[in-house]
Amino acid sequence: MRRAVKILSIGGGPAGLYLGILMKRADKDHRVKVVERNRPDDTFGFGVVFSDATLENLAHADPESYLKITTAFAHWDDIEVHYGGEVLRSTGHGFSGLSRQALLDILSDRAKKLGVELEYQNEVKDPDAYLREDWDLILGADGVNSLVRDRFAEHFEPELDWRPNRFVWLGTTFPFQAFTFYFQNTEHGLFQVHAYRYEKDRSTFIVECNEATWKRAGLDRATEAETVSYLSKVFEKQLAGHPLLANRSVWRSFPNIKNRHWSYKNIVLLGDAAHTAHFSIGSGTKLAMEDSIELAKALTQHKSVPEALSAYEAERKPQVERIQRAAQVSLEWFENTERYLGLPPIQFAFSLLTRSLRVTHQNLKVRDPAFVERVDRHFEGVEHQRYGLRSVAPKPPPMFVPMRLRELVLDNRVVVSPMCMYSATDGTIDDFHLVHLGSRAIGGAGLVLTEMTDVSADGRISPGCAGLWREEHGQAWQRVTNFVHQHSSAKIGLQLAHAGRKGSTKRGWEGSDQPLESGGWPLLAPSALPYLPHSPVPKAMDEEDLARVKSDFVRGARLADAAGFDLLELHCAHGYLLASFLSPLTNQRSDAYGGSLEKRLRFPLEVFQAVRAVWPEGKPISVRLSAVDWAPGGTTIEDSIQIVRAFKAAGADVFDVSTGQTVKHQKPDYGRLYQTPFAERIRLEAEVKVMSVGAITSYADVNSILAAGRADLCVLARGHLFDPYWTRHAAYEQGYALPWPKQYPLDRFQFRFA
């Protein structure tokens, strides 16, 4: 900013104060005024948390306030999980606790010295009054219940999601030596504690429970004193005679806050007014102060306030959204802790530590190798005992622990995902498929799945799709299975499918989902609903169609067995024929095959049962499902759990859990490992084996997912397209030796692992 600007902060919390500090440091001629409704010594809560990485940011932004913060905080490296009668300790985490009041005192003192105008006990009731004043920039830094955000809601477009759990923020004189989690069962239900020390003899003690437990305990009617009394008894042993302390300690629901826009004219939202992230992954204070760092940088680098606000939002919003995605997964872990209570203590602790999906097996191994070694050996021991397998040497990371499905034994837990290549001729594959799948088998994956392979000519997506409805199709596939079995230790599975209403389209690179301009074929579906408005309208299947398609699947299964496949996967996902029976968005039948979930399940189950009857008893069958449709009125995760239980009862061995692609108007919540939580929930609640798929890119992710019990197998698509030897490279980087094909005599040379 080439000229001095006048900035007003509505809200005197860390965001407003820190922005004032940074702007006055940049140019003493800037005028900054902070208006706060409370007294300077009147704040709620007890302590705030900063990671070592956050403190490093603060050190660069304003060294003086950073030094004062570091003299006031309590630092720890350990996390303790008290569960199942055990105390599980992991070290190397690097966090600091600080009194919220001490932080505000440090920031306000620093702001005053730099010339920031501080005006306390001034409750702003009309933001418009300040718009009429001559301010270049107005900060809405007034917290969760932001008056500024509410006043201009039509421009910010906020989304508020009040979460179902209840929590209360308390303090205690118990001096915790680690960030501590307690899980205490009572006659009313489960209570969990997030506790950490922020001063020599003061600690934050946050208690959380679900709403049902909260009400059964009578805490929905309790006064602050009654809450303290009740929880003091629940955690009497843990507190060891130390009292619980209250400070406006009322039970709350956590609000997830997002805003489509963060600025309007010369007004910008900061901190909790703009966004929240659940306290289980850290502090909203961290986000607020980092907002201020980025905004000050933008204001310094750009010529005008509008330019600066645009640049700030473009830079900062994606950063916050990544943190919010991690926070969402974390808060859901604590909202559903009861789901994990069946896990052994060491796996429960590992699941907790990696709950946000940002901390991985590899991160923890760097911080605390002894803890991760214990996790790995537990995983290996349980899996070997479960599947009757012998231990292997050297000791493997989780991804290289073998797995049994019926009589099939996989050497490792890495799966090459089914990926359509659109390169077959009239259903017959050629040398491209031999090289494509063969190279990935040699590349070390435990299981290679073929692309979606269709049971009839009119069941294809495109003219280039692979098929299995004639003997010559099976013979072509047998070349691939023979190669895989002869030249690798991988197993190979075939994904059997019918495209349904999503068929008769161009090849993927010619126009994904776009209908053929000529040479198309009639389509079948449960209901006469086109996939796109300009797609062909499918025929609603009658009894003859149902019988023929079921027969086609049976024929395909027989041919797959004859071709030498080790596993069969029935494709019931992504809006293809069987999936379109399952979803209420695509199945609008009124007969025995539509309506209730039980009826929508009927045809896919009939197909599965017919296929299972002809597929060898010792060979497993997988079912691929879209756990949710990502669209209102579509399949929900609760529906999918019921669907999985039905397939399990019919003899399914493992479930390949994907999401969406049912309807074009879906709105997926993309992000790293975005489908893994669905796989985990299905695994734990339906008590089945699952494959996790979707934005899994690193061996750290694979090991984390497996060791935490989120899935039994991990499926990678793009990773294997980029690197057919992905699994071998992952083994090398972890210092784990995989046997090479005899044609690659690498073991004859000095091939040392890092």
Number of domains: 2
Helical percent range? 25-40%
Low-confidence stretches: none
What is the radius of gyration?
29 Å
CATH superfamily of the largest domain: FAD/NAD(P)-binding domain
Q: How many strands, what sense, and barrel or not for the largest sheet? A: 8 strands, mixed
- How far from one another are the termini? 50 Å
> Structural class given helices, strands, pairing?
alpha/beta
CATH architecture tag of the largest domain: 3-Layer(bba) Sandwich
Number of helices: 26
CATH class of the largest domain: Alpha Beta
CATH topology of the largest domain: FAD/NAD(P)-binding domain
Gross morphology is globular
Report what the structure shows.
The structure is a single chain. The chain is of the alpha/beta class and 754 residues long. The chain has two domains: 6-334, FAD/NAD(P)-binding domain (3-Layer(bba) Sandwich); 411-739, Aldolase class I (TIM Barrel, Alpha-Beta Barrel), CATH 3.20.20.70. The strands form six sheets. Strands 5, 6, 10, 11, 12, 13, 14 and 15 form an eight-stranded mixed β-sheet that branches. 50% of the residues are buried. The radius of gyration is 29 Å and the shape is globular. Helix 2 packs parallel to helix 11 (284-301) and helix 22 (637-650) crosses helix 23 (676-686).
